[in-house]
Amino acid sequence: MSDVSASLTASLWNTLAGDSAALTKLRFTGDGSLPAAFAVTDLAAAAIAAAALAIAELIHVRGHARPLVQVDRRLASFWFAASVRPIGWKVPGPWDPIAGDYRTSDGWIRLHTNAPHHRAAAEHVLGAHSSREAVADAVATWSKADLENAIVDAGGCAAQMRSIDEWRAHTQACAVAAEPVIHSIATERAAARDWPIPTARPLAGIRVLDLTRVLAGPVASRFLAGYGADVLRIDPPSWNEPGVVPETTLGKRCARLDLTHAHDRIRFETLLSEADVLLHGYRADALDRLGYDAAARARLRPGLIDASLNAYGWSGALRNRRGFDSLLQMSTGIADTGMRWKNADRPVPLPVQALDHATGYLMAAAVVRGITRCLISAQGTQAKLSLARTAQLLIDQGAGPTAPLFAAASAADVATDIERTPWGDARRLIVPVTIDCAPMRWDTPATELGSAEPRWL
Q: What confidence score (pLDDT) does residue 411 get?
């Protein structure tokens, strides 16, 4: 068992201002690590452990003995890839045909074109092409910095590949380095909450309004749903992400609202006024521009546990830039380090989208710590995280243990329960964490976006 997982968890738990006594009830199992230039398995185990410790502490605050928390490092690694195992059907591929890495005149760049409007922005700059080869020819005429700026200015998503040293010299890296991994502050007091916190389902009765998409935020709300939270996810009318919906909507209800329409804004404000937790993963200024800045959210729901994440951090010139895990790996030097580590001739990303998953579990940890704070002091919480800061955490950790874990999940790693999804039957990997007396389980299967009404049960 790697000591890195334990030490990294202790650091994260300290950032969350958790009681150090909780660490005495934490155990890790499993040896080995995913093959990578960085300690990806240790990050996976530590992030999941931090969220689980927060659940265990919540149970303890309600007067129960501290439960033992155990994290399986091997299963944690696999959950950072995919947990769903379809029976007789396939999850659609997550990547648009032209998304990916391309060589420019002076290096490499990654285009992220999975959303139609992001592809349109890239095509506005490069022209519409029917093949990756044609896109590659167009990209090759640009410098990486000029093409990144042009696509971003057009409303798209792209990231040039930098080395770690080049990233550290960037003003945005300096801004991000000054931010905590989890920035969490207490907000105003409100009426005391009377959540039941039953030992077996500690988050039962807690309403989570989830405005997050794609991966990091949905991982957070999936974790919360696994311990009983009532999670209502809200998406815009036309949004879809078929490559990850079966993975991330487990245990949730999913509805749609258009926050540019007056009627839907009223419904949203009603939902928020009755929520306990708000998760959002828009760019730093997006909700502000819709009229729902932090002050407005607090007025609608005093004592709200308000947790948000973004891509490039909450300070610095790039704080409002669109970004995704794969782009941050390019920007921060992770893909360049992987290329050198593997002696490859092109960018080498992490074997899993570790920035997304880790940030998601840490977001869940911050939410549960906020619930504990609210029970003790009736104060709300505002928490902020970013993929860039999680990337810095991984980079600072350096290389992990070199012993490999089993290369792939086997049939023995899959739970026997059948999940009846809209796409067909499926199974899930065995959960990577156990909390004595509080099993992680989901009350409903994964579901399609927009399949429920925007209301609380």
A: 84
